[in-house]
Amino acid sequence: MRNLNLPSLCNGMRIIVEELLDNLKVARINRTAFRNEITTIPRITMNLSEGEDIPLQRSQFPVQSCFAMTIHKAQGQTMDNVLIEVERPVIQHGQLYVALSRGRRKENVRVFLKDTQSTKNVVIKSFLSSKLQQRQNEKIFLLTSERERERQN
């Protein structure tokens, strides 16, 4: 497998193959910066005959099928259908929420749990308490600002 040097493609980019020709794949790029841009991916021939008596040549498209991604990779993306496989509880604060909120419609989000009926939503109490304190401080500031305006009127 080799990387291509095309301006609109990079390693790990998601594409949808629209048409498959003998020596060319026509693909639609599925990324915000190049959304729906059409690109072509040529078949690459590699010579594997170094130090061998019989020359060997291999032709392939430098593309691998991908049907899964990590929760981190899915963050910020929206998908039509989502299947979340949870072997064990997710260990980072908010990660389960990120996974569950990737689908366009809740009806198209499915969760697969191995040998259990539930999973834990890991919550970091110190994170929540600092956010709660921040919100309370904002409310206190807003109340103080309103009272100051009332006094001035």
TrEMBL record:
Q: What is the lineage of its organism?
A: Eukaryota, Metazoa, Spiralia, Lophotrochozoa, Mollusca
Q: Which organism is it from?
A: Octopus sinensis (East Asian common octopus)
> In the UniProt record, which is one GO cellular component term?
replication fork
Database matches in PANTHER family: DNA HELICASE-RELATED, OS03G0423850 PROTEIN
Q: What is this protein called?
A: ATP-dependent DNA helicase PIF1-like
> Which Gene3D superfamilies has this protein been placed in?
P-loop containing nucleotide triphosphate hydrolases
- The residue ranges of the UvrD-like helicase C-terminal domain are 66-106
Could you tell me the gene encoding this protein? LOC115209595
SUPFAM superfamilies, alphabetized: P-loop containing nucleoside triphosphate hydrolases
List, in alphabetical order, the GO biological process terms annotated in this UniProt record: DNA replication
